[in-house]
Amino acid sequence: MYKDVLRSIDGIEIFPVIGIAIFFLFFVAWIIYVTTMKKQDVDTYSAIPLDLDLDDKIKANDESNI
Amino acid sequence: MVSHSQGKGANSAQIEHFSYNNVLVRNFAIATTFWGVAGMLVGLLIATQMFWPEANFETSWLTFGRLRPLHTNAVIFAFVGNGMFAGIYYAVPRLVKARMFSDLLGKIHFWGWQAIILSALITLPLGITSSKEYAELEWPIDIAIALVWVVFGINMIMTLIKRRERHLYVAIWFFLATFVTVAVLHIVNNLELPISLTKSYPLFAGVQDALVQWWYGHNAVAFFLTTPYLGLMYYFVPKASNRPIYSYRLSIIHFWSLIFIYIWAGPHHLLYTSLPDWAQSLGTVFSVMLIAPSWGGMLNGLLTLRGAWDKVRTDPVLKFFVVALTAYGMATLEGPLLSFKNINAHTHYTDWTIAHVHVGGLGWNGLFTFAMLYWLVPKIYNTKLHSIKLANAHFWIATLGILFYAIPLYWAGFTQALMWKDFNEAGMLTYMNFLDTVVQLLPMYKLRAFGGLLYVVGALMMVYNIWKTIAAGKLQPEEETSAPALPKQGEKIQRWHEWIERRPIQMTILSTVLIAIGGLVEFLPTYFVESNVPKIAAVQPYTPLELQGRDIYLREGCYVCHSQMIRPFRFETERYGEYSKSGEFIYDRPFQWGSKRTGPDLHRLGGKYGDSWHFNHMLDPQSISPGSVMPPYPWLIENDLDKSNTAAKIEAMQTLGVPYPEGYADQALADLDAQAQKIAEGLNKENIPVDKDKEIIALIAYLQRLGTDIKNAETVPDK
């Protein structure tokens, strides 16, 4: 039955292609983004919950070797 | 203390003094403890009823069908809900260095939420229910939930707007996604037409209602039980182990991929049902993809503890976190596996599902909440935990409790599924009597209840421990602190995600768009493409008496033990009859497909037995089916049917598009009486003295109608 439903929509073939493309680009974009983040920024952000002084934050992160 | 955004050179920035409100945190912490124990006790009672049905003490309020929704609602919305709020009201101000926006909104949120829980505690045992799993509360309470939820959202977002920390830490993204998604899910799934203060009909019917319900049901797990707790994980695990999260980069991928993918996976609850195949496949594909972000998050939490494993040996808080995260990992691997059609064909409707959700509920949410309370309560009471030893004992008894709970139920699920599909050499079902497959499981149900008992005992140990801690300490209602003011102009944004990481409103909107995509793709075709739900000419609207009977079926929560969805397998059609077609449900508001078969499927029950069989069976199930675990329903025979709302019900159905003839509401009562009279006369002839105005008559009318439209049709459609 689902084939009939899908056939009744004009240009349906392009939908899955667009879907996978959006999906792929979305994740590639994130991966590129996170891999090119500055280490110092990452360190500062990840230390926010610890409520330390900035120097301590950096030290804590250096020790953890992220 | 220096906010990172000013850098080292900004020590001259104006330091502002303010305080954090710990009273609300304390209130929510007490509420989660109290409702947690209450919800677990209800769970223990209904687990006992599974092998000892007399444990309903012959009152309608305490039957399994009414208490099971109370248990799920209490655990999800009262225990996890209050736990989530305790954590959020503690973490958010500290992450953004600002007091929560409004004490008043906080109070309204707290007391509003408790009032909603109390109303659930009253209405569900009374049988006031919309009968949609985890959304059973009726429309006035639904509106109250929406309002209180918005109060919570405003309070949180306004806090973020007046924050003193430029960057929004990843935990906050999870909280924002939780807020918007739960709001969307709750509103869409509870679109209903009220006919009185305590009764409404959903705007969607049959397949569409099922799709909306499981889009909601699945994502209630995702966005009420998972995302807020992941946010709490990103705060409390680093906090308790005093080390930053393993990988902040991974947390960014984790967040966006999790919220994007989760929302698509709902249809995996409806595999092999009458839902269109394309929607089922979509649910499976996205469920499998979900393993990646789920495990990314779990590993991120666990690896945060690397280098601190020595502490895990001694610190009960970290122990609870480790097992909670492990349970999360197991449940999120199991979920995608269960969404494969071939595995689901085996597990669906069995106790396996119950085991699965309890690994998540007891393991992930439960143990995480305990850890958070053990860490947080001493902090706000400015003292130390009363007894580390007792907390460690709690850890072990809770972990054992989970094993005793889950393993027998996995066993039961396997056993029952194999028995359901067992054919003998003659090609007949070996266990044609459904009850044979239930009796086999009773030892497993007893072990499960024992596991639940262990878990509750552990929780009570925590109550004692926390109570002694509170007695020894003194609440610090206002926690004084200070932080540099956030300059109006921040430093230049160099990267695009930095832009969104600083903007709570835009982040909220983007999250909404992402979760809306999946939802819309799933519903819109089913709603608008008419051929997705083919009409079957033989399927007619319910008669007024059947409609009233159906509402009794809803009230008693029959759907929690009986499905109305025969899957297209030989072992199902041999047992129950022709498999269910989507066109058969177009007048079902709400749909009653169910999700668990403690008793047999009822979709083709109509005409299978005589009226007297049903009468005797409802009065005393064991007299008809010796060994049955179904409770008796004597009040159906004593209670008069409330017919006063018949016309209103017919009119409501007409408004929703059910093709009763124009003006039928005026005639409905007479038709109802005539049909009731006929059934009562039939029973009287069989020496059953019963009046036509009793509730049982309406219920029998409905049960005898079930699935008969197609039986009576000359040709049987494929779908």
Automatic annotation (TrEMBL), chain A:
It comes from the Bacteria. Keywords: Membrane, Transmembrane, Transmembrane helix. This is CcoQ/FixQ family Cbb3-type cytochrome c oxidase assembly chaperone. The keyword Transmembrane helix applies. It comes from Algivirga pacifica. The lineage of its organism: Bacteria, Pseudomonadati, Bacteroidota, Cytophagia, Cytophagales. The chain crosses the membrane at residues 12-33.
From TrEMBL, chain B:
Its cofactor is Cu(2+); heme b. CDD domains: cbb3_Oxidase_I. The chain crosses the membrane at residues 28-52, 72-92, 104-127, 139-161, 168-188, 214-236, 248-265, 285-305, 317-333, 353-377, 389-411, 449-467, 505-528. Residues 28-476 form the Cytochrome oxidase subunit I profile domain. Residues 544-707 form the Cytochrome c domain. It is a multi-pass membrane protein. Pfam families: COX1 (PF00115), FixO (PF02433). PROSITE patterns: COX1, COX1_CUB, CYTC. InterPro entries: Cyt_c-like_dom, Cyt_c-like_dom_sf, Cyt_c_oxase-like_su1_dom, Cyt_c_oxase-like_su1_sf, Cyt_C_Oxase_1, Cyt_c_Oxase_su1_BS, Cyt_c_oxidase_cbb3_su1, Cyt_c_oxidase_monohaem-su/FixO. NCBIfam families: ccoN, ccoO, PRK14485.1, PRK14487.1. This is cytochrome-c oxidase. It comes from Algivirga pacifica. The gene is ccoN.
